[in-house]
Amino acid sequence: MTTVSFDHHSPEYAHGWREINADLRGRCPVARTDAHGGFWVISKYDDVAAVARDDATFSSYQELPDGSRTGATIPVAPLRQVPIEMDPPEFFAYRKLLNPSFSPASVKAWEPFVRDVTTFCLDRVIAAGTTDLIRDIASPVPAILTLRVLGLPTEDWQVFSDTTHDLVHTVPGTPENDTALAGMFALIGQITQTIVERRAAPADDLISHLVRSEIDGRPLTDERLMEVITLVILGGVDTTGSLIGNALHWLQHHPEQRERLRVDPSLLPAATEEFLRFFSPVPGLARTATTDCVIGGQTIAAGDRLFLSWSSANHDEDAFDAPGEVRLDRTPNRHQSFGLGIHRCLGSNVARLEFRVVLEEVLRRLPDYVIDVEAATPYSSIGVVNGWVSLPATFTPAAPQGSDFSSERTSDHR
Ligand code: HEM
């Protein structure tokens, strides 16, 4: 057994994750680390796939005799999230409940709204010629769509967007983190109130669908509803924002590729997959072995924790030709950024839609954006999501275009 010094939450990993992953793949593709109580790091494409696909041997949720539990992250998150932290057979009932709202046809119907919201976000900054691409665009667009899908009020979108973004990148114990937590508690209050309202008068939104649903003949408890809703929020907002931020930052340094995408937006679907592979917005997630087993020649004991490194798998030389190169038209591109197996990302089509529309609109309306690379701030820890705190940019000012979302919001306040 090879024990390595590996911590996906460390500043070293945030700065050097590509090199650290490559070292592990070459030296010890199934390695043991003592960080966070000890776990295995799985780095090769085929090993990660084998573990993710074997949900009987590798569990996403276990209650332990000491009253603690395991889940999909290392260390375990304070709030359980469902269905990502649930095993079959119970898992299937929840996934079935959610699938229709995120099917390709449902997601396609959201495109006009996503474009409208993107127009609204760009209109707010376009006359000034200056923006923070994260706080003004990459974070708000997924945040506002998530509010709308769930059926939560959209007028406080800014607080919601800042809260979901700040929760991921601020350090526990700092005033910024306290503010983000306070925002999250306010949000939980808002969700609780919406659950009560939708029970009394259902509307056409995901919270109404969930409060009307039954599993094994019983409605979902308030606690369970909250576990599902927080997953839709935390799984969908900052992940997509990070993908957008990473792509906009990369395009700043590759003007010829930026011009290529601007002139021919039909290249964006393939480019989306390549940005997903190259940046792996969710670098890795966890499982727990339910029985003694062998992975990559290493014996894993029942109860051991495993970190599935999607980001390492996505750069495995045995799975991708020249994985260190961004090839916007790479094909095939079987990246693992959305995971695989039964827990494969529920919102993958939503993320792809938001990414494509935001990129199309930014490249069309801010074609000459220049990021202040000195002031651009990456996350100091990428243990959960790999993104940017802030990407300040300037561009040639232009006139706002007008959006239905902004007129709708004006009437909200009348
Ligand atoms: C670029 C954006 C995104 C990335 C990289 C991403 C990544 C992932 C990954 C890796 C998993 C697999 C979890 C596992 O195997 O344990 C997952 C699951 C999930 N994602 Fe995403 N996600 C993104 C966007 C979204 C969006 C937009 C939503 C919702 C609208 C969403 C909701 C979920 C949910 C609910 C699950 C759990 C599915 C299950 O357990 O069956 N994600 N995501």
Structural overview:
It contains 16 helices and 17 strands. It has helices at 11-27, 45-53, 90-98, 104-108, 111-126, 133-138, 140-150, 157-169, 175-200, 206-212, 222-252, 255-263, 268-279, 310-313, 348-365, 404-413; strands spanning 3-4, 30-33, 39-42, 58-59, 62-63, 69-70, 130-132, 214-215, 218-219, 285-289, 293-295, 298-300, 305-308, 370-371, 377-378, 388-390, 392-394. The strands form six sheets. It has a six-stranded mixed beta sheet, with helices on one face. Helix 1 (11-27) links the parallel strand 1 and strand 2 (30-33). The structure holds protoporphyrin IX containing FE (HEM). Residues 52, 60, 72, 83-84, 95, 231-232, 235-236, 239-240, 243, 281-282, 285, 310, 337-339, 343, 345-347, 350-351 line the site of protoporphyrin IX containing FE.
Identify low-pLDDT runs.
Answer: none
Mean pLDDT: 95
Number of strands: 17
Tell me the number of structural domains: 1
Gyration radius, in Å: 21 Å
In the CATH scheme, the class would be Mainly Alpha
Strand content: 5-15%
Which structural class is indicated by helix and strand composition? alpha+beta
Helix content: 40-55%
Going by CATH, what is the homologous superfamily?
A: Cytochrome P450
CATH architecture: Orthogonal Bundle
Tell me the distance between the termini. 66 Å
Kindly identify the CATH topology: Cytochrome p450
Strands side by side in the biggest sheet: 1-2-3-13-10-4
Which cofactors or ions or other ligands sit in this model? Answer: protoporphyrin IX containing FE
Shape estimate: globular
How many alpha or pi helices? 16
**Strand count, sense and closure of the main sheet?**
6 strands, mixed
